[in-house]
Amino acid sequence: MPQFSHPQPEFPPPISYGALKLTSRYHLSPLAGYTNLSFRRIVRQIGGIGLATTDLISADAIVHENVKTLKLIETHPEDRPFAVQIFGRDAKMMVDAAQVLEARGVDSIDINMGCPVAKIAGGGSGAGMMCNTDGTTSLVQKIVEAVKIPISVKMRLGWDSTQLTAPTFAREFEKIGVVAIAIHGRTREQGFSGTVDLSGIRKVAEATELIPVIGNGDVRTVADAARMLSETGCDGVSIGRGALANPWIFRQLSQWEATGEWSPPGSFNDRLELLLRQFSYMQEQWGPDGAIVRFRKMSHWYLKSMRVRPALRHHFQQAKTVEEFNAALATIVEAGPVGGNRTGLLPDMHIPVPSGPVERW
Ligand SMILES: Cc1cc2nc3c(=O)[nH]c(=O)nc-3n(C[C@H](O)[C@H](O)[C@H](O)COP(=O)(O)O)c2cc1C
After folding, report:
1. First CA to last CA across the chain, in angstroms?
2. Region 219-244: what's the mean pLDDT?
């Protein structure tokens, strides 16, 4: 298999979230519906990853021990360090949720200040928190003071291009003890449109003195990460959709940082093996029926990246039982990839942008 190479920038020092030392500066960005336990186990087994966070979880639901929510914060010994992302707007609820998570042994908590979805941001949580500097800073401070585990924040550049509040928040958060800032280089108004504003991320990196700033958005390759690091001065990079398309990305980045070179992503056969392994983890957690339904979104990414013909992908998505799942997969294996072979490098897949500017992720 060929090796790939790319010039290395001067890398910043290793990252710590407070007392929590991370072995890599390359993190998995939270993706609701995808960054569940089964996927986190997969990317951790492949290696090279620093922090992986759950999807955003309602503080309210944690405090009220909502049964479905407690499933979302299940973990596994290989899912370490274990970070949970919470959202909410009520200080007491957020503090109580942080204390519940600390008592359950969570290693760090991330506060969501980036979710653009109207249901969340419109109610004043998620990206809505970026519209209220004093109220939000005081809320975050209460959480920091209520627990011993590290608290990080993930935000966007601001609500819209006239209110680019992220650097101000980053400065204030560092003063009150937040341990790291992850910054998606778009505004709430942008949703996922346009390209990531690296100069906006740079302003956030320049606003903090010591705590790490994690640049996020549109990183799909080592070259994209190299650009993020060198043009923004950030300390780490978090990757969302790029990791769904290529779960090997963290290992590739860590290899690149160590040697300047990295090995290729998985082949059709490797991806098939990963798909089956992730599905088995889903079954462990949710049982066969629950796993089939929950795995559909994820299998779409596996099958697209395996270059499976649309008709076969569609057929697979209709599976309602494990028998149908296995039969559809057998047809896929027999057909093999379009425009590649089962053991070699596959053509890159197109990475979709969630539809609608801000209504959906
Ligand atoms: C389907 C989907 C779900 C997402 N869910 C979350 C979430 O739960 N919490 C969060 O902070 N960001 C969430 N995001 C935003 C991502 O973490 C990330 O900031 C964004 O996708 C840009 O990074 P990327 O280009 O590497 O995907 C989501 C994005 C997508 C596409």
Report:
1. 36
2. 98
Is the full-model pTM beyond 0.85? yes
Query: Distance between CA atoms of 236 and 51, rounded to whole angstroms?
Result: 10
Measure CA 153 to chain center.
Answer: 13
Q: What is the pLDDT of residue 357?
A: 45
* 354, pLDDT greater than 90: no
Torsion angle defined by CA atoms of residues 37, 283, 58 and 205, in that order, rounded to the nearest 10 degrees: 20
- Centre of ligand 1 to C-alpha 361, Å, is 7
Look at 125-129, 225-229, 242-246, 270-274 and tell me which has the smallest mean pLDDT: 125-129
- Mean pLDDT within 197-214: 98
CA 175 vs. chain centroid, Å, equals 26
User: What is the CB neighbour count within 10 angstroms for residue 230?
Assistant: 14
Residue nearest ligand 1's atom 2 by CA? 31
36 close to ligand 1 (CB < 6 Angstrom): no
